[in-house]
């Protein structure tokens, strides 16, 4: 139950908790006092770091990938025991295809003409991590999974550190960088970049000057999230698979019957703290950057994910404190469905039909600036949780 609750806790922020925290930050403004200070802190933590660094919001996506790894240990082990290893492989491949197709539909499907279709995105990355994480789990022992995870992290670091690539920043006739210098991350299109460049770059982890950004701009077809590159791009998928493998290793620990349940919680928390420390230490040389999913980022995010799983496991499964997890259990049971419906309906957009317009203006004027946004965000979150509860009570679970 702790795994379902943690998945729901993670999705809670995606379905509207982030918007509510940002609205509270806006209401807090520059006012003194404890409440405004808390509002500003929560709002800041529910925004992504611009490049290097780590906020709570940077944990949301890798935590979900981590939980995918934990969950597949339970589901595939049961499937292998009931139907055999071949059936499990077929199940993995079928689920990957369905997830990837759903991801394309989520991104707009074929409603747009090629090349204005995004091939890689959040759901696409989840599908790819599931595929490779599941195949590795089905074919390797725990020691082999550790080696694979380490190889992905060290290999990705080595690629970004030692492989040279063209410096495609545009230059003037004299060969000097244009001012302000354009790079891959701030160019409006790939046509602005200097593809005839002969100078090369390596070992650079700055925006637009790293191998991951270059490969997206050069080889990733279709629409990219950031015009010329994608934060869920080609090369950064490799360390994302390592994030899933960390979840697989955590799932193997939870399934192990030898340690006492409280010991499992302790090992998860202790191991998570060690990974966080190791990640930030590695980050002194290889910065903690979510947008290119650096190896140090994998350790930091994986460490925090393990700590959360250990805490949830101790509270929910060991101590039996389960009542407070009810809304999270509802959400976690239909996480992909609720995420997909949010893109179609939009819970906050629906809430604005009830508390938008003059109602929101009244709240802004008579309570505080941003109160209208906070009301819409809160109501949207209530609608999402209510839908999750309705599906759960009716035993409706839409799975792929």
Explain how this protein is built.
This protein has 400 residues and is an all-alpha fold. The chain has helices at 2-28, 34-45, 60-83, 85-106, 122-139, 142-162, 211-219, 237-255, 261-282, 295-318, 326-333, 335-344, 347-355, 357-366, 371-393; strands at 165-166, 200-201. The chain has a two-stranded antiparallel sheet with strand order 1-2. The model has no long low-confidence stretch (mean pLDDT 91).
Ordered list of secondary-structure elements with their pairings:
Layout: H1 2-28, H2 34-45, H3 60-83, H4 85-106, H5 122-139, H6 142-162, E1 165-166, E2 200-201, H7 211-219, H8 237-255, H9 261-282, H10 295-318, H11 326-333, H12 335-344, H13 347-355, H14 357-366, H15 371-393
Antiparallel strand pairs: 1-2
Helix pairs in contact: 1-2, 1-3, 1-10, 1-11, 1-12, 1-15, 3-4, 3-5, 3-8, 3-10, 4-5, 5-8, 6-8, 8-10, 9-10, 11-15, 13-14, 13-15, 14-15
